[in-house]
Structure prediction request, 87 residues.
Amino acid sequence: MHLKVSEAAEHLRLSQSTLNKLRCHGGGPTYFKLGRTIVYSRADLDAWMLSRRRASTAVAANDNTDKQEAARWKRITMCRNGTLLAV
Prediction:
């Protein structure tokens, strides 16, 4: 079963805006583009959530992946229609 962006965001407990930014910028769950419609599989969403698990905040603080992801987010100013505009 495929979920629309709004349904996927609700499943992940994220805002649609955050999910859209993850899709445009990278680092989000795998998606499909069916014509002009973006859809997600529930299995891909669950796999992405599991890949984001952390044992503690100390592990996350020492994880370079999180630091690199935070740096990428700082560079984003707008993401619209698949086009990333950064400073």
User: Anything to note?
Assistant: The first strand starts at residue 2 and ends at 4.
